[in-house]
Amino acid sequence: SRLPLLHSLRCSECRGGDVLAQAAAVALRRCSLSQLVLAHDHIGVKGAEALADALQQNRQLTELVLDHNQLGPRGAEALGKALRRNQTLLHLDLAHNFIGYKGVEEFSKSLWLNQTLQRLLLPYNNIKDKGAEALALALPSSLQHLDLSSNDLRESAAEVLAASFKNLRRLDLGINRLGDAGAEALANALRGNDCL
After folding, report:
1. How far apart are the C-alpha atoms of 166 and 177, rounded to whole Å?
2. Would you state the pLDDT for residue 80?
3. What is the mean pLDDT of the chain?
4. Is the pTM of this model over 0.70?
5. Could you give the CA distance from residue 120 to residue 28 in angstroms, rounded to a whole number?
């Protein structure tokens, strides 16, 4: 049966894992959800794939929060592919998901095709410079807030990100080791940026 009046579903710390994510994917198909929060729920690849499949068909969801799960590189890749078709999602939180640089590289292959995402949170995913560089090349023009804090980023990541600010209004790079050269690259980019 349909539950068209349900607009927000929050199940943080329910610890339902992939089963919870699969049930939420069904809700995405049957309800008019605009917000889905499944944080700290032990969701892995299978759950991410179920959500990604539902996202490709969903036209209402604007906020998806999946922080503190276990999506890994394959889960990030699945969600990235969903962003190719989904043009309603505005906010995506994938903090603390063991994504790594390979996961961000795969996620980024699809990200550039999305023109609605405004807020992308990826802190504590150990994406390193290689992942940040792939992400910097794929940032959609719609993106206004990017959080890459605590990802073991160094000078080279700061330099590449500084060259790709585009329309960003907020960039979080805290708890990284950007060094003097990285800070200088960011400072130079800020001088010519009207948005940040």
Report:
1. 23
2. 96
3. 92
4. yes
5. 20
